[in-house]
Design goal:
The chain has 133 residues and is mainly α. The protein contains six helices and no strands.
């Protein structure tokens, strides 16, 4: 595995904070983060670096778009809190800001998603793929 590939992976957050926030106990969060990092290390031992049918920037942008859609859903879920619970005026204002952010992001994400287009079909067995890493 190339050092560049390993370094690039290490720079990413392999487990999103928006997921980890659901685990309130700090010791559980630390345990989950450590276990996930161990899992990533095992996976990286088997991975030689990705080979794609299209440029890495396109594949990477498509992955970021997927992450942003998940983030938008998290924003909308938080923004809906006043419909399900009693909140303070400050929390209510924050929820409105989160809803606005989700709306703003949705339009930009949709435009980027359209520009990137659909992913190509999986390569057939034995087909060569472009290694862009």
């Amino acid at each position: 595995m190339s050092a560049t590939f390993r370094r690039r992976w290490a720079e990413l957050a392999p487990l999103r904070e928006s997921v980890m926030v659901n685990f309130a106990r700090p010791e559980l969060r630390r345990w989950l983060e450590a276990k996930f990092e161990q899992l990533v290390e095992v996976a990286l031992e088997f991975e030689q670096g990705p080979g794609y049918q299209e440029p890495f920037v396109v594949v990477g942008a498509r992955a970021v778009v997927d992450d942003l859609w998940h983030t938008t859903q998290s924003l909308r879920a938080l923004a809906a809190t006043p419909y399900h619970a009693i909140v303070s005026p400050e929390e209510s204002a924050l929820c409105r800001d989160l809803a606005t952010l989700a709306d703003d992001l949705s339009g930009k994400i949709a435009a980027l998603d359209f520009r990137i287009g659909s992913a190509p079909d999986e390569p057939t067995s034995g087909a060569s793929v472009r290694n862009t890493n």
